[in-house]
Amino acid sequence: MCGLCLPRCPTYRLFGIESESPRGRIALMGALAGGKLPPTAQLKRHLEHCLMCRACEASCPAGVPFGKLMETARELLRSGEPQPKPAGNLELLRRLSPALRLYQLSGIQKVARGARLPRLLGLDELERLLPRSSYRPRLREHYPATGERKGTVGLFTGCVVPLLDGETLTSSIRLLTRLGYDVAIPRGQGCCGALQRHAGRADLAYREALDNLAAFPLDELDAVVYVTSGCGPELLEYERMTGLSPARRQRAAMMSSKVMEISRFLAGIDWPRGLRPAPLEHTVALHTPCSQRWISPKGDPSRDILERVPHLEVVPLPASRHCCGAAGEYMLRHPEIAARLLEPYLEDLQRLQPRFLVSSNIGCSLHIGAALREAGSTLELLHPVTLLARQTGAA
Fold first, then answer.
1. Do both 285 and 346 map to the same domain?
2. How many angstroms separate the CA atoms of 383 and 263, rounded?
3. Residue 64 shares a structural domain with residue 152
């Protein structure tokens, strides 16, 4: 109740009212749970405006677990109501993904946008997020190491990256195999569950977790690496799930003990002497997503791997001290708020004029990338592993 969290909260900074702050939302949640307030549209709106960035937790001297409170409150709001499956936009992308590349490369996208067809179909916010080229690789289940074999890693692909950022996956596979690791990509894996949990559907998140626990051959893996930072906190939570059988509880603990962001994995292993990144005489702006800045216990490992590239100047993006507005599907549910939260990012990039912008979160990349394209920017936005792979000839 001290209010130290207020300056960290993106929506409080934007609206300046108590009901759009962590403290105000806790009061609303308490009143809702205690039956003192009904679940009105206004109350729901204030709770739904929360980005779940959890910046408030980092400044709370009492250690209030705000993220868990908000997840529970959203579950309470959803209870007893027929709800569409969250991440419906993701399901739509999955169905359309075989045609996305044709849609973009054939010129149909330009014609459709000129005719405002996406807006007429109610898909304008989703369509504008599509990157310049949606490359979806056909992934095998196993990639052998080249050279001296050091071990085996499982690659957690997530749900959005395979659809919209195939270059990051192929770069990760090629870099890992060149460093001496077999790469296993189990077909049974799916979404980490974060989108469902943040939407108040813990039941769906639970099912996703069980599928992932069953898919990975954990006994055979030295690590399970993930490529988008938003998946990490959810994967680490598997061991805290309740209602698991003893066997599943053991597997969940094993999964959490082996989960690691790919940049951190690459920074912590020995590299062969002959594999040295080529110099790059450019400046790269480093975006640190909320999942790394506020939730990950070890911060952003991206700089550690980028500093392997000689002559590359890495400049932190000042605006990433606050959420960019992507926040999973938030940018689709609340596009106007998301656009306002993104404005300081665009101002920083205009001032810094870097050659590259790197981010480890696919949602943030899609959100920022769409705004850059609309502004006519030629700045290249990519995953730090992709940039590293290019400089080592593994792209």
1. yes
2. 10
3. no
